[in-house]
Amino acid sequence: MSDLPSSEQIEKIIEAIESEQNLDSLQDNLAEMHPVDTARLLESLAPKQRPVVWLGLSDEDRGEVLLEVSDGVRDDLLQNMERRDLVNAVRNLDIDDIADLIPDLPDEVLADVQFSVDKQAKLGLDEVLSYPEDSAGGLMNVDAVAVRGNITMRVVIRYLRLRGELPENTDQLFVVDRRGRLIGSLHVTVLLTAPPNERVGKLMEREPVTFRAMEAQDNVTSAFEKYNLLSAAVVDEQNRLVGRITIDDVVDVIRERADHNLMIRAGLDEEEDMFAPVIRSTRNRALWLGINLITAIIASWVIGQFEDTIERLVALAVLMPIVASMGGNAGTQTLTIVIRGLGLGTISSANAWRVFKKELLVGGLNGLIWALVVACVATLWYQDLGLGLVIAIAMIINLLASAMAGVVIPIMLHRFGVDPALAGGVALTTVTDVVGFFALLSLAALLLL
Amino acid sequence: MSDLPSSEQIEKIIEAIESEQNLDSLQDNLAEMHPVDTARLLESLAPKQRPVVWLGLSDEDRGEVLLEVSDGVRDDLLQNMERRDLVNAVRNLDIDDIADLIPDLPDEVLADVQFSVDKQAKLGLDEVLSYPEDSAGGLMNVDAVAVRGNITMRVVIRYLRLRGELPENTDQLFVVDRRGRLIGSLHVTVLLTAPPNERVGKLMEREPVTFRAMEAQDNVTSAFEKYNLLSAAVVDEQNRLVGRITIDDVVDVIRERADHNLMIRAGLDEEEDMFAPVIRSTRNRALWLGINLITAIIASWVIGQFEDTIERLVALAVLMPIVASMGGNAGTQTLTIVIRGLGLGTISSANAWRVFKKELLVGGLNGLIWALVVACVATLWYQDLGLGLVIAIAMIINLLASAMAGVVIPIMLHRFGVDPALAGGVALTTVTDVVGFFALLSLAALLLL
Predict the structure, then answer these.
(1) Confidence band of B197 (pLDDT split at 50, 70, 90)
(2) What is the model's pLDDT at position A1?
(3) Which residues 6+ apart lie within 8 Å of B298 measured at CB?
(4) What residues contact A196, with CB distance under 8 A and at least 6 apart?
(5) Cα–Cα dist A2/A341, whole Å
(6) How far, in Å, CA of A70 to CA of B382, rounded?
(7) Is residue A279 less than 8 Å (CB to CB) from chain B?
(8) Which of B405, B251, B256 is nearest to B336 (CA)?
(9) Does any CB of chain A come closer than 8 Å to the CB of residue B315?
(10) Chain B residues lying within 8 Å of A171, measured CB to CB
(11) Cβ A410 vs Cβ A344: under 8 Å
(12) What is d(CA A434, CA A284) in angstroms, rounded to the nearest whole number?
């Protein structure tokens, strides 16, 4: 793969733009670049630097780039584009890709796009747009090639020769009856290897994996992975073929989902533009910090109930973050495992109790181990065995609590339809902070003073 | 997709096994289940429950299931299998799949497997095994169909008919010269639509995306995504065709990578078996907790330097977790964005400075906002304007520090070849804890006492 534009090459272009030198060769470089790389380049640039690149792109490349860039950068580009340029960039894309862009397009551009595509494409676009964005119908393209079951392989091949080029990623043709209802599929490899006189109906796969247009995208991605599909038919309520989904779009969904999971764990907007205006980024992240502030104040309030205790034994103030932090870390481990299990479907009500017991045991054991270590540290530090004992008990209590919270919180959130990846971490650390501080301080008040 | 075995079905099986009732119908259910679902079922069961399912599987299903289960469960299954059963399960798999399993197989089984596959397969297996697991060669299969460039479409089709079924996911044939060197590729759709008398050499794609066998898998996955590939040729140093990589294996790599990222952030073993023995899970997680304990002790030590200050103004002990926790959360947001940018290649030395400046601004602004809020809370709580002022300044300092750490730490780790997802979080919270505690307590010592 010596052809892949290396990241060094992109780095050089960025350097040229940063220093505003050697911009002459930029045009040539851009023409050779793959839209995916151009999208990465645009994401690497500050908004005010992007026009240098953007203006150097052809209409076709612009359309592809709009599909590839992150949401934040796309908004930035769309806002600064002439309406006519925008229509030119979008109208030559595949129907499913236009449908993906449409939620972000200004209304008047949308009308122009629908006006400028041909009639066939307009029908297809209407079809795709009639389904929710995250359904199988929203993901499909309308380029499925259909044949009838009663013709021979020879006739199919003759038809394909007349038709010319096949749509990208065509691994199978779909077999329909007179009313357009799906009755099977015919792999192109079968077409190549089967006797020319055999009929389609005899050699077709009779029950290909098929999606209803309203099917959730999660089911589509897991079926593609499970059955190693390259494409699959999408049918409407009457089982009529309305389109097909191809693996490249499924890969995009998988990638976006993984990205989404990583981002929301830190309370970030799904696709924050790395160089969005400072004000916008600040606002995007402030909400999350505000939520965390509330939980931090709750924990502080718990400490506040023990001011007298701390005044009389200031070592507690020194040691209390250790108990809270160990609980937070152990709890996050449990939480991660449970969220993953819920996502994969390996945790359900049938075995949740078993998960709970196991995590409690692991939490208790790790609590014991680290309680011993921390007890030694505290005893040596403050020459106070009682203090060592108290912090050890608090540690065990908090690691047990963190195990329980790590199992119960995500399962409850999941049951109430809240994504546990989003809210699970905050809820968990609130519990481990509160329990950690309370256990240590109340035990100390009870036993040491 | 009414055919997909629903999670409820799996739940019912788990319930049956848990209650040890209705086990009669288990056998029938298992025979109908897809290996992916069987793998999920096994992962949902405790080790001692797994034999009920495992013993009910055919040799073929067992091989597929071994491929699909997580590493932890696979180890468990392999350890409890008869050597002969193991050989039977493995030997009928695809060459690339056997190669994937081999690192986990006991040595004597490996010899038996190599002995029991046919000579052709053994050669292929040796070829795949000669490359590192995470290289293109380690990912490839050896089932590429090759044709010569000087023959016509008609001859190719006749050859394919004689050959019979094509390997799964065959979207292109590879064109080689007399010495087996790759000179192009021929899409099966071209074969279907081109005139029968045209020669392969004329219609083939002359520069198909191709990987050297030693190419890193990351480059393979990004090229598959970028170019929407279904398959690609793998060649050796002499440009001879040695195999091909198909999209289904690439999807597996993408999925595993995403999973890996989520797990190591919490310091978890990549594929911890949810029901592994308690002792093993405890040990797996203890190391991470130990590392965190060290960082917690460092933060405590900083607090310890200010015992006098806290004794005189115990409100500091109450408020200090707020400053530390806000820094940790803001820093994690920056860290997540920078790790993502490093992974995508949108952050490089060319624009790192710009990222740094922006994050510093966002951190400073959010510091200002939340410093104001916290100052009000603290002033009202303790009726002490001085205290409110001190915590406000400490908050701004810590959010600036968290922004710097969130940019610098992952970039440094990345440069030294350490995965920032693994160590970044711990390093960051150490910084934000230390800076948070130190800023608040030292300012208080200086200004309030």
Answers:
(1) very high
(2) 44
(3) B430, B433, B434
(4) A152, A153, A154, A157
(5) 40
(6) 46
(7) yes
(8) B405
(9) yes
(10) 169, 171, 230
(11) no
(12) 27
Please, where are the H alpha helices in A185-314?
Answer: 188-193, 200-203, 217-226, 247-265, 278-304, 307-312
Residue B316 burial class via C-beta count within 10 angstroms: exposed 0-12, middle 13-18, buried 19 and up: buried
**Looking at A157-161, A391-395, B210-214, B392-396, which range is the least confident one?**
A157-161
CA distance B251 to B259: 12
Higher pLDDT, B53 or A108: B53
Ordered domains of chain B (ranges, CATH): 7-131 (1.25.60.10), 146-263 (3.10.580.10), 278-447 (1.10.357.20)
With a cut of 60, say whether residue A399 has pLDDT above it. Answer: yes
Q: What is the ipTM of this complex?
A: 0.91
**Most confident region among A55-64, A67-76, B138-147, B394-403 by mean pLDDT:** B394-403
Residues 6 or more apart whose CB falls under 8 angstroms from that of B246 comprise B141, B168, B169, B230, B231
Which of B225, B255, B272 faces A225 most closely, judged by CB atoms?
B255
Query: Can you tell me the mean pLDDT for A112-135?
Result: 86
3-state helix, strand, coil split of chain A in percent (to 5) is 70, 10, 25
- Say if residues A123 and A117 touch (Cβ distance below 8 Å): no
Q: How far apart (Å, rounded) are the C-alpha atoms in residues A397 and B252?
A: 40
**Tokens at A106, concatenated:** 């200004």
Mean pLDDT of A246-256: 92
Query: DSSP assignment, residue A24?
Result: T
Q: B169: which 2 tokens? A: 């996911």
The span from the CA of A235 to the CA of A355, in Å, is 40
Length of chain B equals: 449
Lowest mean pLDDT among A110-114, A219-223, A305-309, B147-151: A110-114
Which token pair is B408? Answer: 């610098």
Q: How far is A427 from chain B (nearest CA, A)?
A: 14
- Three-state SS for A80? coil
Element (H, E) at A54: helix A50-54
Residues 6+ apart with CB under 8 A from B304: A318, A381
A228 at the B interface (CB within 8 A)? yes
Mean pLDDT confidence for A227-235: 94
pLDDT beyond 50 at B4: no
Separation of alpha carbons A35 and A13, rounded Å: 15
Q: Look at B258 and A254 and tell me if their CB atoms are within 8 Å.
A: yes
- Residue B2: predicted pLDDT: 40
Stretch (H or E) spanning B19: helix B7-19
User: Sheet containing A172-176: which strands, arranged edge to edge?
Assistant: A146-148, A172-176, A182-187
Single-letter amino acid, residue A172: Q
Contact B358, A281 (CB under 8 A): yes
Structure tokens belonging to residue B80: 């409890």
| Residues B344-353: b if buried by 16+ CB within 10 A, e if exposed | bbbbbebbbe
- Tokens representing residue B191 in the block: 């074969």
d(CA A190, CA B157): 11
User: Which residues of chain A lie closer than 8 angstroms to B366, CB-CB?
Assistant: 282, 285-286, 289
Distance CA A233, CA B262 (A): 33
Position B139 scores a pLDDT of: 92
Nearest by CB to A346, from B43, B210, B361: name it: B43
What is the distance between the alpha carbons of residues A441 and A385, in angstroms, rounded to a whole number?
16
Cα–Cα distance between A433 and A429 in angstroms, integer?
A: 6
What is the reported pTM?
0.91
The CB density around residue A381, as the number of other CB atoms within 10 Å, is: 17
Conformation bin of residue A169: beta by default, left when phi > 0, alpha when psi is -120 to 50? left
